[in-house]
Amino acid sequence: MTPISTCNLLIKYSDDVDLLVPETSDVDLATEFQGIIAWASLNKMVINFQKTKEIVFHRPNPRNIVYPAAIGFIEQVDVAKLLGVLIQCNFKCDEHVKYILAVCSQRIYVLKLL
């Protein structure tokens, strides 16, 4: 599996694939995603569209945010989990810190009960 445009990047890990399409790419996200769907179909693989998410990255305090049009069946999110790390669209890390603190709190509670 390779991207259509050399500007775009596919990051593959086990059964997960992440597609990065920069603003300056000559091929848009919809076209790249159609290429991935075609590749999956050709290789008799199934894409789980319920787990497929789109995140648009921007500066923490942008003046004007222009979101690209969403692909009809893909949900646009502000926070996505990538290999156990919560990544936010504004490059902040407070959601990941909250998540880690909640997990630590649960583990300390279990240890306290034991």
What is shown here, in short?
With 114 residues, this protein is α+β, with helices and mostly antiparallel strands. The protein contains two helices and six strands, in the order ββαββββα.
Question: What does this protein look like?
Answer:
The chain has a two-stranded antiparallel sheet with strand order 1-2. It has a two-stranded parallel sheet with strand order 3-4. A two-stranded antiparallel sheet has the order 5-6. The mean pLDDT is 88. It is globular and about 55 Å long. The longest helix is centred in the last third of the chain and has 20 residues, at 94-113. A hairpin with a 2-residue loop joins β1 (9-13) and β2 (16-20). It is built from two helices and six strands. It has one domain. It is an alpha+beta fold and 114 residues long. Helices cover 30% and strands 21% of the residues. It has helices spanning 29-42, 94-113, and strands at 9-13, 16-20, 53-55, 75-77, 79-82, 85-88. 3% of the residues are buried.
Map the helices and strands.
Blueprint (H helix, E strand, L loop, with lengths): L8 E5 L2 E5 L8 H14 L10 E3 L19 E3 L1 E4 L2 E4 L5 H20 L1
Parallel strand pairs: 3-4
Antiparallel strand pairs: 1-2, 5-6
Low-confidence sequence ranges: none
Instruction: Sum up the overall morphology in one term.
Output: globular
Largest sheet: 2 strands, antiparallel
Mean pLDDT: 88
The number of helical runs is 2
> How would you name the oligomeric state of the polypeptide chains in this document?
single chain
Helix content: 25-40%
| SSE-based structural type | alpha+beta
